[in-house]
Amino acid sequence: MNGAESLARTLVEGGVHVCFANPGTSEMHFVAALDRVKEMRCILGLFEGVVTGAADGYARMKDRPAATLLHLGPGLGNGFANLHNASKAYTPIVNIVGDHATYHRRYNSPLTSDIEALARVFSGWTRTSLDARSVSADAAAAIAAARTSPGQIATLILPADAAWTEATDWLTPVPKVAASPRVPSDAVRTAAKLLSAGKPTLILLAGGALRAEGLALAGSIASKTGAKLMAQAFNGRIERGIGRVPIEWLPYPVDSAIKVLSEFRQLILVGAAAPVAFFAYPGKPSLLARPEAEIHVLSRPEEDGRHALEWLADELNARADSLKINSSTQRGAATGTVTPEALGASLAVLLPENAIVIDESITTGRGFSRPTQGAAPHDWLQNTGGSIGIGLPLAVGAAVACPDRKVIALQADGSGMYTLQALWTQAREALDVTTLLFSNHKYVGLRNVLTSIAGPNVTAKAYDMLDIGKPDLDWVALSQGMGVPGMRVETMDEFNRAFAGAVKSQGPRLIEVAL
Amino acid sequence: MNGAESLARTLVEGGVHVCFANPGTSEMHFVAALDRVKEMRCILGLFEGVVTGAADGYARMKDRPAATLLHLGPGLGNGFANLHNASKAYTPIVNIVGDHATYHRRYNSPLTSDIEALARVFSGWTRTSLDARSVSADAAAAIAAARTSPGQIATLILPADAAWTEATDWLTPVPKVAASPRVPSDAVRTAAKLLSAGKPTLILLAGGALRAEGLALAGSIASKTGAKLMAQAFNGRIERGIGRVPIEWLPYPVDSAIKVLSEFRQLILVGAAAPVAFFAYPGKPSLLARPEAEIHVLSRPEEDGRHALEWLADELNARADSLKINSSTQRGAATGTVTPEALGASLAVLLPENAIVIDESITTGRGFSRPTQGAAPHDWLQNTGGSIGIGLPLAVGAAVACPDRKVIALQADGSGMYTLQALWTQAREALDVTTLLFSNHKYVGLRNVLTSIAGPNVTAKAYDMLDIGKPDLDWVALSQGMGVPGMRVETMDEFNRAFAGAVKSQGPRLIEVAL
Fold first, then answer.
1. Which of A286, A443, B376, B470 has the smallest count of CB within 10 Å of its CB?
2. Is the entire prediction scored with pTM above 0.95?
């Protein structure tokens, strides 16, 4: 068995059964090895941003890492943006990058670059396998590193000679990964004291605390103490909908977030960071809570937030029976003109049970949170790192992870263009993804920023840079060009009909929603 | 004038008149400043790989840098692959990356990452402007750095507060950039001695020596001494066709390159590196010349290769009147089935005078070099860094640089998918680009590698990873979805008719060539 096969077998033994790949010559021994390792499913992306975003979506839904397979520095570069996003979501990924043979690097052939330096920008763990006999141990260490709480990207660089040379016949088992550490008792007692002090308090949740169980515990605490719950602005995964504890996320616009936070004198952070502005703006603060607000960390991202909430609920004698949960608020799908509000109302009615919602709807979707609280139970996955072009790839990974669930991608047009190649993988793998492509032909968020900077005097030249409607993109053609059936809707009646039809059918569909 | 305007004006004063851009919130002050700086043309790409590849193509044709405008670390990451390629072509680029406000970075908001570390992987010069008053001096230094021979990427990171704060009213002029240094006389005398020794000698050319003037000098030397000329395997720009000195480039496959080089006992390098294998393969050498061959550097990449050739020609008393030049070898366009050979024959006839040929045809185009020697005079631009996805963006930049010349992009399908968004910019700017999209539905180069590794026993699972034809991409739909008229041809007659028609018309066209 050569190093490449040793790697593939170690991955499988270590619980990594899916590899999202865009291989090149230096990875060809790994591809050849796949023939002999039947348990590894390998899924091709036609661009590396698809591969890395899919690995993110897969792990968010499976709670265990997928592998990637990327081609030298430029392949890793193409995958950078969605690895950045994954790193901000604390997603575990075993990120495999092929490199030149060790002895070949010194000759500086065209594809040579400093892969380790590039990988370290977003990886929590980086290692180059120096020879074939090290590969299995290195791969096992990479899996363990990726799974170390709260999850991180472990980049393993595989030189071509380490792949093709004969390796050991035995595989290294993955070292035991420590469970998330529990929070110190002080953290819980202080939280309990703050919650009993009678001051307006926000419990700000992130990570695992946003699954149903964590939310139920947080909901009991909120009911008992009068504290309010919110999720941080961008989250890897929230379990929500009917029967779950209602929770909204902090708004993205700085002024809105400051307004929301202004009522709180105390913040208790559960896996979340203190709220900061996404961008700085002249004359606006970076930190969004009231300056005098007391901010207390109940649990850090790597700590066990669910357990901390359980402990805190015990401490406060908070009980699940007083829990407020979402009930159906459905008032029928919206009709008439397509607007963000109408889309939110229709989504609330039409989201199928157990759907996985991928949200890269940007400005169109800013209001979707509230109405969809009353939708059928579902998961909601957001862009955690702010690098646009995550939506379509994330949908690929989620659909591979959960073949029996419908994936609904809420996708803005500007962002969708970054990684549109993901549609091809959806078609190739017959993934059950319905993409709602919101087509407003503009970078609307940026237009708002430009107007606020430049005032009414800004002219067409500057706005032109934010106008992606000259020429208009035809998403139905783009989608069909990659094998995904597409259609375009221009009224809410058409939308409701098309979306209901897509939900009933199987396989990838794209609905271009004209706004 | 704020820092952003100071930057835009310094660029214009420094001869940088085009900015390829994909801006975000942190770059919005620069976008707003464009309104007040009429001399700066700003061209939008819907993905950063388009932006950086276009800047490469522009500078290759203009011999002066364009600017890019990218959005924080992930924007730079998306642009990485084509910046890698540009760095290997020694292309001058002023690469501008917006960042968070200096005081905001510490809060680690979602888009925060180590931009400088990322930039250093491919940049010859990297600097962060620390305040608005430094911006003009930093921009002037960036232009000078980019233009320093042989050309490099200068990355200037612009924090948002350096952009929006009031800057100085005066602009820093670009420091004088030293001309390419001349080679030492020893280098010329040694070359002359080697060429007079009667041993089989290859003069291997790269960079500026591949323009018509350098080639004519090299051709005179070759005629006088019996040396053979070749270009290195991948080149930024070669002036070729009828009336120019015939030159082919070293073949990509290792065995072919070794065979070509086996006849030479001496290599004289003019701006080129000693030939190395693109990838290492088990049992094959990294260095491709005969081990005992004497390798002499006439000029390094940063030295003046044209002048070195002139000096050497003088030394050898080599005269232009003995020059062999290309004459027309056109025997009529090919008919019948579409094959790489037939395409090469038709290209030779149909390439319009003064065309700019962008070559990312990969396996399909391996044989295009010889027949097109006899085509009308043209420039030939290759992928210098091996990261695929350069072709369509490079065509954008070349067309912007030379609006009165026809750009012909020879584009493989697999590579084209990486940056297909470039078609939209071609449509938006009405660029005169004809893309010949060679559609074989496979990563053919990789299939060859896999077969050579795994032999006849390799099964469908591994080949599936290299098959991009499940489902087939419909390039006509993809092209039209982005506003570029597309058509598909399946015979050489159809090809000849479609290509001749595209050459006669103006504006972007895509012809999908079924192979």
1. B470
2. yes
